[in-house]
Design goal:
The structure is a homodimer of 440-residue chains. Helix content of chain A is 17%, strand content 29%. Chain A has helices at 17-27, 71-74, 188-196, 235-246, 260-270, 290-295, 340-358, 409-412, and strands at residues 7-8, 13-14, 34-37, 45-46, 50-51, 61-62, 66-69, 83-91, 105-109, 121-124, 153-156, 166-167, 178-180, 201-205, 209-215, 219-220, 231-232, 249-256, 276-280, 307-312, 315-316, 320-326, 331-336, 368-373, 379-380, 386-394, 397-400, 417-421, 427-428, 433-438. In chain A, the strands form 9 sheets. Chain A has a 6-stranded mixed sheet with strand order 18-15-19-23-22-20, with helices on both faces. In chain A, 53% of the residues are buried. Chains A and B meet through helix 3, strand 16, strand 17, helix 4 and helix 6 of A and helix 3, strand 16, strand 17, helix 4 and helix 6 of B. Chains A, B: Belongs to the MoeA family. Chains A, B: Its cofactor is Mg(2+).
Chain lengths: 440, 440
């Protein structure tokens, strides 16, 4: 699974952040496409090019409420010398049996209605007397109140050129043209186009189902009473929310006690609904770090490609990490550390790109930028580790929020960026340019 | 309802875009708060300040896997001259009955476990022989495999200062401090903090329920057969997706035929599940524009504050617009025009800010910026109208996509911005600076 031999220090081998991410993205594959109803496909990635089956609009139609007439009949007219035409009836939108408009005739026509045979142009109702004989009108009276508007005579006060106020068949898109390209993310305007060309469903990569479970015998569900030595489970909530935010359908399993057998059976139970599993805690060097112990034996051990590898990364926070695949379907699993800030930062760096790769997105990473560091004093960072500090970014300037401690969840809640301090930098002075990950 | 008298032209009075938006935002009020489970509150706005009930962490605890010891017992030690301490047992995370660490003693301690009484500092396991007597180790063996690790002796090779590797009670947040301010939008890190301080549920403004219905006898459901004079309904799909994108729970009712009685009863049926109703089509000057006709009589006509007002705006696309409130609860309703581009642009300008106001968000508008126009020829715009052209924005430059026609849904699907041409501008040259609405 490893892309390269890790750097070694005096003690443990250390992998770089980039090596770990590369291994994850080399393993995770976009999900198989499925056909989804249009609105269920919102936010998903189109798998095939979509071709226009029928031109849009499918027929010449009026862009105004008015009268469909022949050009010659309204040539040179004015308010003083109007054309007086015989109204042969209404053409409403959606009407299929069309009138014929002959010389000296007009059909009252509604926006979107097909241009009837014989008619060459449309004059807006505001250029006519609307059949009332009292000069220009502002609109038509509702047909239910004045059915006589569909008959009688109409005075036209202004001329119109051929095909004025007519939307030509195919003027939006023509049959056979490509409407959307494979790889397009379906937002509201793309859904509008797919509906407009008649697509009720579409083949996309589905949203990945992500199961989040935290581990730790000290964890209590928020809202319950806190006992001695206990803390509230926040990771399973934070990462479920973050997985949704990344585009996944996320399931929070909640906290599992530090018992290898319980953890193993919980993970096996969850495989059925998981395209990706994310655990927190139990990946370090302690005697009760059961995630390591449990996950080397999940699923069929004889299956090639299965197994979780635990590593130390040259990173702070987030040094201990696990990644691999488990079970008969080789479901990918990320075992993140348990400190709240470590797990959140690890999720942003590794789980979010994995989720977005499963979705088939091209752009799997958070945007990055450079910013000027605004701080009271220099930031210090351990040698040989890439540090990710919480920051508040505004218009090219970033300020650290809280300290480097991986338990500082309050500061995390007031940050909107991660300040990246590279491995070979031990101190960053105020005013220096730093790389920043924008958390959106 | 009007904030100001509209500008009048030779024909109809025209309201400005800003006047119409102002009237909408003056009418729409944030929804009443409800208590939601933490994960159901994701993306919602917090109603009250949240205070920390119990300090975080709630007790002094270890930040490492290692041994809890007394400072004097490890002072001056080295690999050559280690301290040899008696291991009195394990302190695991979540453990409530704590050992006492006396002089010459050590408790094996796990990350997150409470610092036991008597202990003053923590030495990481990597600074010890882990009880194995063979020099520095990389970690502990799982307790299930080596229970003897909780007893025997341990050699400590490096000294530690008082409270090294100890996270102090309250070092994250202290009881009584404000964790989050009213008005905060709850993203993953804020949910992390709320969980961490024990909040299982939280009072927020709920996501508004938005009912979208399109009108038009010409409309056919995508996926069905298109008859003569018919087109596919795209507006109800596009605006349902756009309402979700704005943060709403959206319900697509689909296309209603141009019959006032059907429309009226459909709208009345939907009131029960709507915080906002959005219709498309039927708002212009045609004889079949039934939205106008129907919606002046919805709900209790005697109720003050109810009623829909139909206007013409100095805007292209999107001239005809309706807005007001209907039914016993004065549910706000936006009646948007029916052309696909008109309805989408109107939604962006009027419905999206209304939805975000219902959510209690401070920032209800799409971001705007200025950009340099990249185009082959000048853009023309009708005098006295604010025009919104579809554009593609990239790094300070915007290019028009497709023409100005309000039926051009294919171009809309390839745009990510609206180019704003003010009322008093009739032509914009290539290279000019233009205002741009970024569609996200």
């Amino acid at each position: 699974m490893s892309s390269a031999a890790p750097r070694t220090t005096g003690q443990d081998p250390l992998w770089s952040v980039d090596e770990h991410l590369e291994d994850i993205l080399a393993t995770v594959r976009p999900l198989d496409p499925i056909e989804l109803q249009l609105l269920d496909a919102q936010g998903c990635v189109l798998v095939d090019d979509v071709t226009v089956p029928v031109s849009l609009p499918p027929f010449d139609n009026s862009s105004m409420d008015g009268y469909a007439v022949r050009v010659a009949d309204v040539a040179g007219v004015s308010e003083e010398f109007p054309a007086v035409l015989e109204v042969v009836g209404d053409v409403a939108a959606g009407q299929s049996d069309l009138l014929h408009v002959g010389p000296g005739q007009a059909a009252r026509i509604m926006t979107g209605a097909p241009l009837p045979p014989g008619a060459e142009t449309v004059v807006p109702v505001e250029w006519t007397d609307g059949g009332l004989g009292e000069g220009p009108v502002r609109g038509m009276t509702a047909r239910s109140l004045a059915p006589e508007g569909a008959a009688g005579q109409v005075c036209v006060y202004r001329p119109a050129e051929a095909r004025a106020h007519v939307r030509a068949e195919g003027s939006d898109v023509k049959a056979g043209e490509r409407a959307l390209e494979a790889g397009t993310v379906l937002g509201p305007p793309q859904i509008a186009l797919l509906a407009a060309i008649g697509r009720g469903s579409v083949r996309v990569r589905p949203r990945p189902r992500v199961v989040v479970l935290s581990t730790g015998s000290e964890l209590v569900q928020p809202g319950e009473e806190l006992g001695s030595g206990q803390i509230y489970d926040s990771n399973s909530f934070a990462l479920t929310a973050a997985a949704r935010d990344a585009g996944a359908l996320a399931y929070r399993v909640g906290a599992v006690a530090d018992d290898a057998e319980t953890l193993r059976s919980t993970v096996e139970d969850q495989l059925i609904r998981a395209d990706l599993l994310v655990t927190t805690g139990g990946v370090s060097v302690g005697a009760y770090d059961v995630v390591k112990e449990a996950l080397s034996h999940v699923g069929d051990a004889d299956e090639a490609g299965s197994g979780i590898e635990f590593r130390k990364l040259a990173m702070q926070p987030g040094k201990p990490q696990g990644f691999g695949s488990i079970g008969p379907d080789h479901t990918p699993l990320l075992a993140l550390p348990g400190n709240p800030v470590s797990s959140y930062v690890s999720f942003e760096l590794f789980a979010r790109p994995a989720i977005r790769t499963l979705m088939g997105l091209q752009d799997v990473h958070r945007p990055r930028t450079t910013a000027t560091l605004a701080a009271d004093r220099a930031l210090s960072s351990p040698k040989g580790r890439r540090q990710f500090l919480r920051g508040a970014y505004d218009d090219g300037v970033v300020s650290p929020v809280g300290g480097a401690g991986s338990h500082l969840v309050a500061a995390l809640a007031h940050a909107d960026a991660l300040i990246v301090v590279p491995e070979d930098v031990e101190s960053v002075e105020p005013g220096a340019e730093v790389e920043v990950v924008l958390l959106g």
